[in-house]
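Researcher: Go.
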Amino acid sequence: MRVGMLTGGGDCPGLNAVIRAAVRKGVQDYDYDFIGYRDGWRGLIQGITVPLGIPAVRGILPRGGTILGSSRTNPFKTADGVRRIQENLAEDDVDALIAIGGEDTLGVAARLHADHGVRCVGVPKTIDNDLSATDYTFGFDTAVNIATEAIDRLHTTAESHMRVLVVEVMGRHAGWIALHSGLAGGANVILVPEQRFDLDEVCGWVTSRFRASYAPIVVVAEGAMPEDGDLVLKGAAAHDSFGHVRLSGVGEWLAKEIEARTGKEARTIVLGHVQRGGTPSAFDRWLATRFGLHAIDAVRDGDFGRMVALRGTDIVRVPLTDATARLKTVPGPLYAEARTFFG
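Model: Structure:
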């Protein structure tokens, strides 16, 4: 059997660990051949391949990013995309495809399997941790650790100058990174997309913090919105091939509003792509490795149209359609716990 692999969407710490584990077990235990498609669905549409064998995956466990490259290409928005995918899989003698990605990549895999007979197995990847069918996605733990370390470092400079520091982290529709890093880093305000915020209330928390002779840290997810407004964007709105607007700007807007309303100096720190760059954490290496092992087992079992997922400490298989049916967002009671520390 020959197995194809691709990584789609944003890069993420742990992608290489998935590739390594699937190839190692597939070659050693099942005598499979592997081929990688460059740059996600774009490589499969264009027929751009790289050989994947045990020598190719040696030493990649601690490496960030993906040795296969990635893109946000949508085959269903590309001329003849699906037909070209089918033709290239046939020409390359690929019997099964492992697609590693988030909501969009797995959504494409689900449609290709259900509507076009492509034999796909999915592996969940997103630093946002917003896929509902799995307890955790790899990349999330690394992103939280990076954000937490940044917040730890910012406390001292904020207090040295007695200014407000607004830290903008990733999180389009789900505030998991903001919530976890904000709590772990001792932030004084955490703003998430799931709960619209009252700007006057935020300024009240900031003022209260200064009364206690401390400088506040505000952590805001890029998709957070004020009660009386919409998404705050930096510059003209641009969209990717899946229709997602490119976010960033709420942190800068929030800092300006806080400074104008409280009279306290406020600065913005946008962590951006640093959250998903660099070496993966130990947890992400462990989880991604297990996902890779179980993904190749699903291929061996002919269990296509499924995604591997973490439930407790077990790796299970769920339908790809379940994985992309809805987003996993921060529930109200969990956010209420964090509010104890606001102000």
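Model: The chain has two domains: 2-127+282-311, 143-274+331-339.
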